[in-house]
């Protein structure tokens, strides 16, 4: 049933792309550039370039919460409404294909950086089943799909699951965010993580509370697993 829903969603999105033509995926101006991004948007894209630095603000922030190998975010989530809107379209408007597109662009940078060369497996941060049924897709899976393709490693969508359907963190106070991410993730067949270097993928890094909870769940059942983290965007509270 879930597979059927996902298939129907893909068909309708493909039809939508046929109807609306192939303008730039950000500004909708006509464009025939690689990945459907016009030159102006490509030039103005608020990339962090953090993936090329072993010391960067995202890694420093996450290391203050939990041990990790590498961490970075592709875009700053603050500079321009078009980019903020792109994340909203990806998360809430059914435009999951944006996830694959930006995942592939980010994956190319991750590969070029050389810091993620020994990653064995890419794992998206899961949604709770109720949220998945409501939204019909997990945007992080599509970002992870693009990244895994570029890194040439497997994508695993089933090894992590969410025990609790914690509410969206967007409009909560920081203390509430920490309170409701306690022990919310579980791991299925943890032996698959033994001695592996896994790359966790999420959409937006805000406090890191959800990611830290996810990583602790992995270490609790697979202590020899090493974890790196990438997110498509990083909120302005984590500054260079
Ligand atoms: Zn454009």
Helix content: 40-55%
End-to-end C-alpha gap: 44 Å
In total, how many domains does the architecture comprise? 2
In CATH terms, what is the fold-level topology of the largest domain?
A: Rossmann fold
Secondary structural class? alpha/beta
Strand content range: 15-25%
Summarize this structure briefly.
The protein is of the alpha/beta class. It contains nine helices and seven strands; from the N terminus they run H-H-H-E-H-H-E-H-H-E-E-H-E-E-H-E. The chain has a five-stranded parallel β-sheet, with helices on both faces. A two-stranded antiparallel ribbon has the order 4-5.
Walk me through what this model shows.
The protein has 240 residues and is an alpha/beta fold. It has two domains: 1-44, no CATH class; 45-235, Rossmann fold (3-Layer(aba) Sandwich). Helices cover 42% and strands 16% of the residues. The chain has helices spanning 2-20, 39-44, 57-63, 81-92, 97-113, 129-135, 139-151, 174-179, 209-221; strands spanning 71-77, 121-124, 154-155, 160-162, 185-187, 197-205, 226-235. β6, α9 and β7 (226-235) form a beta-alpha-beta unit. The longest helix is centred in the first third of the chain and has 19 residues, at 2-20. The radius of gyration is 17 Å and the shape is globular. Residues 15-20 have low confidence and may be disordered. Residues 24, 26-27, 29, 38, 40-41 line the site of zinc ion (ZN). Residues 24, 26-27, 29, 38, 40-41 line the site of zinc ion.
């Amino acid at each position: 049933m879930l597979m059927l829903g996902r298939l129907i969603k893909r068909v309708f999105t493909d039809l939508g792309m046929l109807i609306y033509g192939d303008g730039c995926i950000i500004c909708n101006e006509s464009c025939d550039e690689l990945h459907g991004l016009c030159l102006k948007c490509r030039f103005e894209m608020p990339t962090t370039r953090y993936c090329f630095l072993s010391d960067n603000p995202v890694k420093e922030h996450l290391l203050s919460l939990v041990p990790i190998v590498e961490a970075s975010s592709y875009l700053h989530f603050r500079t321009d409404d078009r980019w903020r809107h792109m994340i909203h379209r990806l998360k809430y408007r059914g435009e999951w294909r944006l996830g694959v597109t930006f995942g592939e662009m980010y994956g190319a940078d991750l590969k070029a950086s050389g810091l993620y060369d020994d990653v064995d497996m890419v794992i998206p941060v899961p949604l709770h089943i109720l949220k998945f049924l409501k939204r019909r897709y997990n945007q992080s899976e599509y970002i992870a799909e693009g990244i895994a393709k570029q890194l040439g490693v497997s994508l695993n969508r089933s090894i992590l699951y969410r025990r609790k359907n914690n509410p969206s963190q967007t409009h909560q106070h920081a203390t509430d965010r920490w309170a409701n991410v306690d022990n919310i993730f579980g791991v299925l067949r943890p032996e698959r993580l033994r001695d592996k270097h896994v790359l966790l993928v999420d959409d937006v890094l805000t406090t890191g509370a959800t990611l830290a909870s996810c990583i602790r769940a992995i270490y609790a059942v697979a202590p020899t697993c090493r974890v790196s983290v990438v997110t498509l965007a990083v909120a302005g509270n984590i500054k260079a």
